């Protein structure tokens, strides 16, 4: 442009213009030098941990040289570390617009969005980061976290495994992997992942808590108790661990110890509605109903919308023959949480005991809206309908309950047959295993494990085609099932 | 190895043997319809006339499955009406692990009600007979929702204080000896429970007031009821697992009156099993039946015992025999055993020394 115009201006003008340009270039060089100085200063300050100083320096550098992707990137980084996430995101986006191949900027943008709770945005940025930097463990780690948050456990597990492969010492990745595996019901592997996270970073209270929860889910209450006690050794006031310990004691059935535990929590945190509620539950299990009622009422005082407390209060009142009060408590539970089938169900049965059969029918029908596959509700409804004199409708409900119960009992029988089949398979009694597993799939055609083990047995028996068909069926039913070797 | 619960296992079927009257029996299970039932895994069995039609019905407590009420069709066949009749499931529509069963008219309405013991984590069940071939589950309103920790077995409607109202006694004990090592369960040996009839449709747990023999734990199974020392109150024999039986002698402290009736059948069976006795006093009407078996693997005293409260006499004793014959006896004095022969009335009386 300048050249074209020079030609039009003539020689003298061209000389002036050239002189002007020389002057500009000189100024630009000075600015560039100064920008570089500010940039270097920013980096030095950042290394020293002086975030404010570094931010100031990077901003000065940008004023002088606004199109340097690296400067925007470091400014974004420093702002992010400082917790100014919105500003950080803006700077990182500028850095990326200037240099889309700047992988670190994508990574930090993803991380900043993750901390800003923009999960979708984080996933987009982190996917680009892992594409540009496939060997960056942190990018895979954060992408795993974000995918987990989105509920895509399988994708999360893959990313977290990659992160761990690249950096086996990344304790948070093991921890996060444990959570994703737990979500996918892969409890043994989840427990292993939590244990590795703890080994790498033994002072992480949350890892002990999560290990304890996985062990609880695995029905290993003693293991869970040990894990929660470790958490409490690190932080004796940790309320999550305290409450978890109480919960696992209830799961173990050690109600006396659970009562003691919740009483201790209440001394420490008298305003904990959860502790009062759980104490009420533990007392109920001990048949100490009057004391349980007191605790549940306290929980409700502290948290009036704690629907479970209203529900449990209703159950306990009904156990004590306080049928009218029970109905009121259960009604409240259903009001607080209208999509609460248990509350409608229990309300129905209490109204039935009051002789309010029409009310019972209405409540039970409401329960079925939310839990149509529950045979016991159909039975109770049938009973209530019978009491209203509507024998034909009652019969329909009883029939539906019988149908659902049949499915349920077949599922139980199938589970039993599957376990027997697996045992036979281990003993190499292939014919017996095949016969038992075939019975299992007949009883419950939705049992993926039965099909999978049948496939294993058939494969071992050399019946390749039948094995393939069973395997395919298993994987249709549960895509997480790994292919047979 | 620990025994597991029945779900998932193939259940058995119930069997009915018809007495041929010549010392032999015929298996009529299929012909009678007994094998057509919703429930399986049967434990406690009880025979009684629940609909007052003069024909004996059968109630079976099933483990982890709906209980069965076989209605006698009066033609050699039975139909399981348990679910439709409202006595097969808990109030919340779930099958229970039924163990022991007993029948009695706890509310003096002239219809036999059902009490059933269940597994731990559940209450026992009390089904009130509505008189319309149906039952209402009144477990909670009747005050029996309080105990969920015990695993119940033998049980009986017995009038422990002779006030003329049937109380309920049950024995308990876990199925797994291993639970003794755990803090989690109520123990292998468990206390018995006595519910006192409050004469208003509800009961109070008075176990703690009934003496150490009641509240002391035992791994109990069977419970049979009868006045072994003939002192006018009902004693209890408890069969235990891996231990000696327990004999609980009732020592009544009140001065309430009573009467016992022993039946001798002529056309009907000799023990009068299946006979219905109606006992009318100034305080009301009680009913009971002579039955074989019941509770849990137990046989009660075949003499029927009624508490009479302060009544000095029974205004009328009406005995309906399985043959259909009815014997009615009037103004029978209290505190004695009367032996009644079918069609002949009282043939013997015995008073016992206290």
Give a quick precis of the structure:
The complex is a heterodimer of chains A (485) and B (354). Chain A is mostly helical and 485 residues long.
Structure description:
The complex is a heterodimer of chains A (485) and B (354). Chain A has 485 residues and is an all-alpha fold. Chain A is 82% helix and 0% strand. The termini of chain A are far apart. Chain B is mostly beta strands and 354 residues long. The longest helix of chain B has 4 residues, at 29-32. In chain B, strand 13 and strand 14 form a beta hairpin. The model of chain B has no long low-confidence stretch (mean pLDDT 94). Chain B has helices spanning 29-32, 82-85, 212-215, and strands at 17-19, 25-27, 42-48, 57-62, 68-72, 78-80, 101-104, 113-116, 125-129, 135-137, 152-158, 167-172, 193-197, 203-205, 220-226, 235-240, 246-248, 257-264, 276-281, 284-289, 304-309, 313-320, 326-333, 337-341, 345-350. The chains are: A mainly alpha (485), B mainly beta (354). The A-B interface holds A 252-257, 285-287, 289, 318-321, 323, 345-346, 349, 352-353, 375-383, 386-387, 394-395, 398, 401-402, 405, 409, 412-413, 415-416 and B 7-10, 38, 83-84, 86, 89, 91-95, 123, 134, 136-138, 140-143, 145-149, 182-185, 202.
For the structure shown, list the relevant keywords.
heterodimer, A: mainly alpha, disordered N terminus, B: 354 residues, mainly beta, 38% strand
Please count the helical segments of chain B: 3
Uncertain stretches of 5 or more adjacent residues of chain A: 1-22
**Mean model confidence by pLDDT of chain A:** 92
Q: Give the % helix of chain B.
A: under 10%
Strand arrangement within the widest β-sheet of chain B reads 3-4-5-6
Overall shape of chain B: globular
Structural class of chain B: mainly beta
Low-confidence stretches of chain B: none
Strand percentage of chain B, roughly? Answer: 35-45%
The arrangement of helices and strands of chain A along the chain is: HHHHHHHHHHHHHHHHHHHHHHHHHH
